What we know:
The chain is α+β, with helices and mostly antiparallel strands. The chain has one domain (about 5-95): Alpha-Beta Plaits (2-Layer Sandwich), CATH 3.30.70.100. Helices cover about 35% and strands about 35% of the residues. The chain has three helices and four strands; from the N terminus they run E-H-E-E-H-H-E. The protein has a four-stranded antiparallel β-sheet with strand order 2-3-1-4, with helices on one face. Strand 2 (about 35-45) and strand 3 (about 50-60) form a beta hairpin. Helix 1 (about 15-30) runs antiparallel to helix 3 (about 70-85). The radius of gyration is 14 Å and the shape is globular. The model has no long low-confidence stretch (mean pLDDT about 95). GO terms for molecular function: monooxygenase activity. Keywords: Monooxygenase, Oxidoreductase.
Amino acid sequence: MSKLLIVGTVRLPAANLSLARPAMKRMVESSRAEEGCEEYSYAEDVFDAGLIHVKEIWRDHAALDRHFASQHIAEWRASWPALGIGERNLHCYEIGTPRPT
């Protein structure tokens, strides 16, 4: 069975990072606790302030669908206008079994 990999970026004004960190922390912690979430992370770009890299791995489509219907994602999305999050560039890929490189 294929897993789902979501990768991409979101952008917010660098001046809003300190306001966004608590909301991002809640989102990451809540998502990691969901059944079917195998990995969920946000990372600040070291060269481009305000650019956040997103990486998620989900067991299957049902888990991802539950995630999209969750209360914490609704709260996270509702916070975007106040945080200045506008630009989103996320893609979902089906992946197979990882192998060492």
